[in-house]
Amino acid sequence: MEDQFATMFPGQPAVREIRWESEYGAEFPGRIHSVELGDRYYAVTVVDYSDAEAIHWARANTTEADSPTNYNYWRIDKIASVAYAATRFRQRGGSVTFDAWHHIDRVPGHQLQITNPDDSRTYAGMYLHEDRLYIIEATVAKGTPPPGMFQQGLRFIDEQGRRIRYSWGENDELIRETRETITSE
Predict the structure, then answer these.
(1) Which of 28, 39, 85, 109 has CB atoms 3.0–4.6 Å from 141's, for a disulfide?
(2) Using CA atoms, how far apart are residues 155 and 105, in angstroms rounded to an integer?
(3) What's the chain's Rg over C-alpha atoms?
(4) Of 4, 7, 10, 5, the residue nearest 153 (C-alpha)
(5) pTM for the structure as a whole
(6) Torsions phi, psi of 140, nearest 5?
């Protein structure tokens, strides 16, 4: 509930606090929800960009070009967070076998599939929703079926636990809708 998402983990996830270093050197708070089962790893990382402006103003590592007064990099950091997260996955190494735009409930994002140097496979998706960057990833051993239920099961929820979905309105604007309440067992 706190990070406003739901998905089907293959076990009870451990949760740990992190600091996410952005493309422009700002550090944002976040949490990793993860499950490790032998050679399989499942995680949802949620990075909170809601205080992006204040975090950028407090940075000591700015240059004249990226200072908040000159170019508002706090906005760019947030808007480009999906592309930057995808770049970080590509930089891990391995062979990218799928690399394309994607959406979940019409929340835009990006998906990657990577064959790692040890022949394991990583399936990842990155989505920016309401000032939060959601990164869902699963790594499975060679020959293991893709973790489709985990990866495709990501849902964004509101404060009451209701699923958020967008529909197309007139003039192609997105309209937010809420659906059934997501419960955890």
Answers:
(1) 39
(2) 8
(3) 17
(4) 7
(5) 0.90
(6) -130, 155
